[in-house]
C-alpha cells in the first residue's frame, strides 16, 4: 500500500506531497488539472514506465530539467522508501537511500494495474499495444520474464546496429544470436502460457454478465519457435536476408495476438462497445491473476474515468474484483453516489495542487 508520494517537476506538479491512509481514494477535479498525471506517477513507481508515453522526457514539466518521485510503501511487515530521479536524460534509482543500478531490482515493489479510456487500443490498435499489455502483465507475474525482455532488447538493438552497417560481418551478427535465442524462447513460452490463462480468466468474468459470449486470445508469432535451438536455426536461415533488410525481421518484437469474440477477430469486426468491454475484462483479469500470486497489499489499481456509464451488473463485478487489491485510486470530475465510495478519502486536485 502506498502511504506517501512526493512529486517534483512531474507533469504539471511543481512540488507536492500526498499521504494516503485508506484503501479507496478519490481524485476529484475538472479535466486537465492533474488527476491522470498523479495516476501516472503511481504507475511509474511500480513499473518505471508510463502507461501514456514511451518518452521519459515527456514526463517532466516545462520548467524543470527533470523530475523526482519519492514514494513510501507500507508492505505487510515493513516500510520501504523508493526514489526515482530523472535528470539530464538519466534515471537514478534508490531504495531506502541506497542506489539501485538494475531496473529489475527496483520494479514491482508495488504491482499496478491501470484502467484507462485508451484501453480500447489494446483491442483495435496495432500489435505493439497488445504486446505491451501482455509484457506488462507477465512482468508483474513472473520475475524471470522482465529479465529476459531486457536481455532480448539489448541483443536485438546490438544486432540491428550491425545489420544496418554497409559491411556484412557474419561473426558479429552471429555473436548476439545465442542470447536472442535463449531469451526469445523464454518470452515465447510465457506468452503462449498466459494467452491460455488470460482467455480462461476473461471468460469467467465475462460469463457473469454475458452468458453466451466466448473470448479467446491466440498467440501468433511469425515463426513458432519455442526452444533456443529452433530460434538459432531460424536466425541462421534469415541472417543474410536480415542484412539486406537492415533489421531483425522476426522474434518477440514482431509477435501478434489475435483477440477473438465468438471466433471473430475483434480488431476487424467488433463494435466500440465490445472492444471497451473486453478491454475492461482484460484489466479485471489482470487484477485477479495478480491476487493469486501476491500479497494483496502490494496490488494497486488505478482507475481513470472508466466506471461512470457501466451497466449495473458490470459495475457490480468490477467493484467485487477491486476487493482483490490493497489500494484503489479513482479519478472523477465530481464525487460519485455509489455505496462503494462512501468511506473513500477525497483529494481535490486543481492545477497540480492537492486540497
Q: What do these coordinates show?
A:
The structure is a single chain. With 355 residues, the protein is an alpha/beta fold. It has one domain (2-354): Rossmann fold (3-Layer(aba) Sandwich). Helices cover 42% and strands 25% of the residues. The strands form three sheets. The chain has a six-stranded antiparallel beta sheet. A six-stranded mixed beta sheet has the order 8-12-13-3-14-15, sandwiched between helices. Strands 9-10-11 form a three-stranded antiparallel beta sheet. Strand 4 and strand 5 form a beta hairpin. The longest helix has 30 residues, at 177-206. The protein is globular and about 65 Å long. The model has no long low-confidence stretch (mean pLDDT 94).
CATH architecture: 3-Layer(aba) Sandwich
- How many beta-strand runs? 15
Largest sheet: 6 strands, antiparallel
SS-derived structural category: alpha/beta
Overall form: globular
Give the strand order of the largest sheet, numbering strands 1, 2, ... along the chain: 2-1-4-5-6-7
CATH topology: Rossmann fold
N-to-C series of helices and strands = EEEHEEEEHEHHHHHEHEEHHEHEEE
- First-residue to last-residue Cα separation: 21 Å
Cα-based radius of gyration, to the nearest Å: 21 Å
Portion of residues in helices? 40-55%
By CATH, the superfamily comes out as P-loop containing nucleotide triphosphate hydrolases
**Regions with little confidence, pLDDT below 50 for 5+ residues:** none
Structurally, the number of domains stands at 1
* Fraction in beta strands: 15-25%
Amino acid at each position: 500500500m502506498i502511504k506517501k508520494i512526493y512529486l517534483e517537476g512531474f507533469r504539471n506538479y511543481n512540488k507536492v506531497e500526498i499521504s494516503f491512509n485508506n484503501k479507496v481514494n478519490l481524485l476529484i477535479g475538472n479535466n486537465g488539472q492533474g488527476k491522470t498525471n498523479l495516476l501516472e506517477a503511481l504507475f511509474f513507481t511500480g513499473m518505471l514506465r508510463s502507461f501514456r508515453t514511451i518518452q521519459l522526457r515527456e514526463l517532466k514539466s516545462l520548467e524543470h530539467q527533470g523530475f523526482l518521485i519519492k514514494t513510501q510503501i507500507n508492505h505487510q511487515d515493513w516500510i520501504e522508501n523508493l526514489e526515482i530521479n530523472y535528470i539530464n536524460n538519466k534515471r537514478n534509482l534508490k531504495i531506502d537511500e541506497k542506489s539501485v543500478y538494475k531496473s529489475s531490482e527496483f520494479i514491482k515493489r508495488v504491482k499496478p494495474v491501470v484502467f484507462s479510456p485508451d484501453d480500447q487500443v489494446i483491442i483495435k490498435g496495432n500489435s505493439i499495444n497488445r504486446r505491451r499489455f501482455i509484457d506488462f502483465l507477465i512482468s508483474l507475474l513472473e520475475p524471470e520474464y522482465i529479465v529476459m525482455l531486457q536481455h532480448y532488447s539489448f541483443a536485438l538493438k546490438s544486432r540491428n546496429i550491425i545489420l544496418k552497417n554497409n559491411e556484412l560481418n557474419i561473426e558479429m551478427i552471429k555473436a548476439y544470436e545465442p542470447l536472442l535465442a535463449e531469451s526469445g524462447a523464454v518470452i515465447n513460452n510465457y506468452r503462449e502460457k498466459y494467452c491460455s490463462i488470460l482467455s480462461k480468466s476473461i471468460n469467467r468474468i465475462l460469463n457473469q454478465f454475458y452468458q453466451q459470449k466466448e473470448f479467446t486470445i491466440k498467440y501468433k508469432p511469425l515463426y513458432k519457435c519455442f526452444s533456443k535451438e529452433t530460434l538459432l536455426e531460424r536466425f541462421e536461415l534469415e541472417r543474410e536476408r536480415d542484412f539486406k533488410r537492415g533489421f531483425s525481421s522476426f522474434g518477440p518484437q514482431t509477435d501478434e495476438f489475435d483477440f477473438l469474440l465468438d471466433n471473430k477477430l475483434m480488431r476487424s469486426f467488433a463494435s466500440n462497445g465490445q472492444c471497451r468491454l473486453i478491454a475492461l475484462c482484460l484489466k479485471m483479469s489482470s487484477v485477479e491473476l495478480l491476487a493469486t500470486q501476491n500479497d494483496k497489499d502490494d496490488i494497486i489499481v488505478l482507475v481513470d474515468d472508466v466506471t461512470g456509464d457501466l451497466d449495473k451488473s458490470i459495475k457490480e463485478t468490477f467493484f467485487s474484483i477491486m476487493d482483490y487489491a490493497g489500494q484503489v485510486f479513482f479519478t472523477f470530475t465530481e464525487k460519485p453516489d455509489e455505496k462503494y465510495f462512501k468511506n473513500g478519502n477525497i483529494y481535490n486536485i486543481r492545477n497540480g495542487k492537492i486540497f
